[in-house]
Amino acid sequence: MKRIIAQAVKELSQFRRDRLTVALAFVLPLLTLLIFGYAIRLEAKNIPIAVQDFSNTPLSRRYTERLFATNQFQAAPLLGGSAQSVLDRGRARAAIVIPPDFADCIQRQEPSAVQVAIDATDVNNARVTKSYIEATTRFFLRISGLQSVPQRLQARIRIWFNPGRQESLYIVPGTCAVVLWIYPSLLAALAMVREKEQGTIVQVYASSLSALELILGKALAFLVVGLSEAVVIITVSVVLFQLRFAGDPTPFLLGTPIYILAAVMFGLMLGTKAANQTAAVQGVALVGFLTTLLLSGFIYPVSNIPFPLSLISNVIPARYYILIIRDAFVRGTGWTGVWFSLTMIVVLGSVLFNVARRSLSRMQVSD
Amino acid sequence: MVHHPEVEVTPFSLPAGSMRLAPVIQVAGLQKRYGALTAVKGIDFTVQRGEIFGLIGPDGAGKTTTFQILAGVMEASAGSVQVLGRPPRQARLGIGYLTQQFSLYLDLSLNENIRYSAGLREVPLDRLMERRDRYLKLMNLDQFGDRLAGQLSGGMKQKLALCCALIAQPEILLLDEPTTGVDPVSRRDFWDVLAALANQGVTIVVATPYLDEAERCNRIALMYNGEIQQMGTLQDLRIGLGLHRLEVRTNDLATTEQVLLDAIPPLPHETPPPLVDVQSFGDRLDILVPDHATGEATVRQVLQQQHLHPSQIDYAEATLENVFVTRLRQQGADPPFIPLPRSLPRTSRSLAQPRGSNDLAIQTRQLYKTFGNFRAVKDVTLEVRYGEIYGLLGANGAGKTTTIKMLCGLLPASGGEISLAGRSQNLRNPDLRRQIGYMSQKFTLYDDLSVVQNLEFYCGVYRVPRAQRREKIDWVLTICGLTGQEDMLTGRLPGGWKQRVAFGASVMHEPEILFLDEPTSGVDPLARRQFWRLIEDFARRGTAILITTHYLEEAEHCNNMGFMVAGEVVAKGTPSAIKAAQPGKLIEMITNMPQVTSDLLKTVLDPWRVSIFGDRLHLVLDHPDSDIPCIQDLLQEYHKPDGTILELHSVRAIPFSLEDAFIGIVQRSEQTT
């Protein structure tokens, strides 16, 4: 135990000494949080829509007004061109053509067709635009009293957990998960590989320190660093993005140290495998960053990931931590929702720990 | 001012009885294979408690591998190794190991480094504090406790590393080239500490490329090609060599050397010929002969036939370097000497011609350099002629590298004049630059390029004509012994080889002025000899060479030299002149208790005047006639608590080595300031 502490104390003094590393350990996570927190917006707003109204009657104008009544769409000027040319030039994402007989047909209680052309370059937003236009059209029919038959079936929708549908509540906890994976593991990987690069590892081999003690000592040091990062990140999220605990915070308070420890183990494991600092940084950037960003359910739902890749997502600890942290700040269901996730993080962390320990187990210079 | 406090070290806990008789380290039939390569091919040796055991040998001889196995950080492929009666891995707590790279965390302070080493070995806090204070004092580092290790000089770093290794009070110290790149004063300091430790019962196994240092070991093993070629005390090795040394001084060294070399029959010899080896130094030739008298007769006779007349022939003992080189030559390990294939016409300037002002290749007047308020170089005035080898010597931080960088135009001077090849203006001029070669202290090669890619790159940089590039590159590969391995990554070469490639890269364009900043640091003695033959060949062809080195034995190759202390040139002249200018005499003293004698003498003499060389002491005395009787009286009064008295076996004057001169000059000039 004493030797583990000695190892951890040494790591922390080295960490503290290097101002650049200290700055990186706290500035980079904050920057990541701010960029992700403010820049990632999945929901499109103010989509430019061009309306070519050939009818030009009070009814057609009411329909147009209804379309722009929310901040979802914004009118794009036609500037004398046709609906198609506006789409071609990219001035509007959708074009709506109201036929000349629009008002007449409706007054005659005959169906009228409004033409909608949607630019589907951005697949997701095309879908959003489509359903929004459909919904607006239905709503217009209802309030204008044009719907002859009353609807037999109505879906009464209530939005749970995030009633205001604040996107930051979705993005920011996920960002915390990404940040708390990447940076502790990066620091740990560098600390491990630097000993190898500078040859000081031979001194460790020559002492009777075991691989277990070496790894635990380093892990302890970077757990401390990681936890201070976590405090900073969560505090900033609370202040800037109005994150609040939604329920029992115990799973989160317990899960965060375990998750950071798993991240540190991941870093140490990369550090034992990588030959130099560059390789270690690239390892963390490629393996760590890409998987936590894309395969963890941070942005895209895990269920959307197609088959062979979805298997990988099962072994990404960030995937489970995202569930825990979202539960803590959004869902608030407490233990019921997250005990499995916590178990998975423990399991994956121990696997990483064992891989690291095994590759160091000889504690000898390799041939 | 270097000062050694009284060494007051508690004896190491010796397990009762048994250990004193059994050797501390026993190695039998040790082998290590890396894939197809056998690095160590079955070596046997034993080391007794309290012994300083030296391992010397060229790069790639298997020394580091042996150390790693002894330290328990690598498995042997075959053979048995017992350290403290156990396999090395189980004996690790009793071993202190200094690796070739600095074994320190440069971003931690001295105290933090020591605390960490102690923590790894579970040294209790109170002992840690007591030992830390004691060892830091012993190493003269006590006032730097909070300084970062990275801010220490090379010598101080190694002393700190030794402190860290000592903090757990190991019974064995394994030191793998601990003094490489460390200046002579610090090196001598370091060895004094080692001698004190050995006297307290610490067993020390040490590798070093400095053969003058290796002479301070109790026993020496010469390793080559994974085998121990020879082992014994310095005296044993000299006797085993069966050769003596003649120092020949003459006006025309180059011709004399050639004539004598021609007189040596080619290898292998059945019986030693009357002349075995000739080596040229700055102002003399060393000739190895089986017998002094017949050797001298042969030399005189051979030179007579060519109408050459040596001015002086002195008798001397073979050095460890002679043993090393002769022995390895018999193994066929001598790297080839091939002069650079030249395209430029040979310059007619040579040292033999009378001096003229346009012979000056490098000239500085009152050169100054200040960094902030620190004066790195003060009032340096030097002149180097074409065809001359000028050595700039000094401790780390004396201003040698700064001076070279100013001369190369890499650093602007703060004051003074520089003229290179007759120009004093516009030193960055490309035409002038092409006449200059510069090999810097740190490796100038790209580790991630292959050897041949590096050489091609430098050919391009120095605009070597395309038609000659192949020939020049082949030459570098041949002198480095890398023919056929040119596609190897440079980063994978051992340090000594890298230095040779770097040297080759800096001279391919046939410079007329060559700056070499510690070119031979970490290079083994055989390769160093080849280095010097190449350097001398350049000088003979009219190149002016300014060189810095830590190896004072090889500084003897210089025609002229300047000693720098704290940015100033404090002494200059030929090697012989500098040695002759030393006040006082060097006295060799043999007693039955060298360490006790040394401790006693240091109470009455400046500590730098006393050093231990294996079983003898070297003293620098300014007034030997009056000092020696006083010393004898002092030693006679001493007797150990158990009644043993100090016996003085012999006292005699021996010639100063350049290193003695260097240390004397540095110490005296530091005393006056």
Structure notes:
The complex is a heterodimer of chains A (about 375) and B (about 675). Chain A contains 14 helices and four strands. Chain A is mainly α. Chain A has a four-stranded mixed sheet. In chain A, helix 9 crosses helix 10 and helix 10 runs antiparallel to helix 13 (about 315-330). Chain A is elongated and about 95 Å long. Chain B is of the alpha/beta class and about 675 residues long. In chain B, the strands form six sheets. Chain B has a six-stranded mixed sheet with strand order 5-6-7-3-8-9, with helices on both faces. In chain B, helix 6 links the parallel strand 6 and strand 7 (about 205). The radius of gyration of chain B is 25 Å and the shape is globular. Mean pLDDT of chain B is about 85; it is low at about 1-20 and about 350-355. At the A-B interface, helix 1 and helix 8 of A face helix 3 of B.
In percent terms, what proportion of residues of chain B is strand?
Answer: 15-25%
N→C terminal distance of chain A: 30 Å
Helical stretch tally of chain B:
22
The description of the largest β-sheet of chain B is: 6 strands, mixed
**What is the helical fraction of chain A, as a range of percent?**
55-70%
Please write the string of helix (H) and strand (E) elements of chain A.
Answer: HHEHEHEHEHHHHHHHHH
Q: How many β-strand runs of chain A?
A: 4
For the terminal residues of chain B, how far apart are their CA atoms?
10 Å
Helix content of chain B: 25-40%
Mean pLDDT of chain B: 83
Q: How many β-strand runs of chain B?
A: 26
Query: Can you give the mean pLDDT of chain A?
Result: 89
Report low-confidence residues of chain B grouped into runs of 5 or more. 1-20, 348-355
- Radius of gyration over C-alpha positions of chain A, nearest whole angstrom: 28 Å
Briefly, what is this?
The complex is a heterodimer of chains A (367) and B (673). Chain A has helices at 2-17, 19-39, 58-67, 83-88, 102-107, 123-143, 167-198, 201-206, 211-241, 250-273, 277-294, 307-313, 317-331, 335-360, and strands spanning 47-53, 73-75, 94-98, 115-118.
